[in-house]
Design a protein that fits this description.
By secondary structure, this protein is of the alpha+beta class. Helix content is 18%, strand content 26%. The protein is built from three helices and six strands; from the N terminus they run βαβββββαα. The strands form two sheets. Strands 1-2-3-4 form a four-stranded mixed sheet, covered by helices on one side. The radius of gyration is 15 Å and the shape is globular. The chain starts with 17 loop residues before the first strand and ends with a helix.
């Protein structure tokens, strides 16, 4: 997600502030390699790693000092606050219409 306008022909989103990666067991190493690369982009404020085998989202939020936390915050229910864009979303809405939410105990 970006706040910068896209231009016709752009292959990449300019100045992203929020990046989301979906993690599957078969691409875990590549996903975390991408996350490390994203963290080097100065415009990026927040990175989400959405698990595909369980309801859990890893949240990395760049601090006011420009540094990243040593460990992500794990969110597996309730409301996910997206500080980088000043909004929130229910975790259940992220997983809506998936086998994970459909088979979750009440």
């Amino acid at each position: 997600m970006t706040c910068a306008p896209n231009k016709a022909g752009d292959l990449f989103t300019p100045d992203p502030v929020l990046l989301v990666e979906v993690l599957s067991p078969s691409n875990a190493a590549e996903t975390y390699e991408s996350v490390r690369a994203y963290a080097t982009l100065p415009s990026v404020k927040e990175i989400l790693v959405v698990q595909s085998t369980r309801i859990e989202i890893e949240v990395l939020l760049r601090g006011a000092d420009g540094n990243w936390p040593a460990n992500p915050t794990n969110v597996n229910g309730g409301q996910l606050r997206l500080e980088s864009i000043g909004t929130g979303i229910a975790v259940a809405d992220i997983y809506a219409n998936t086998h994970l939410i459909e088979n979750r105990p009440a």
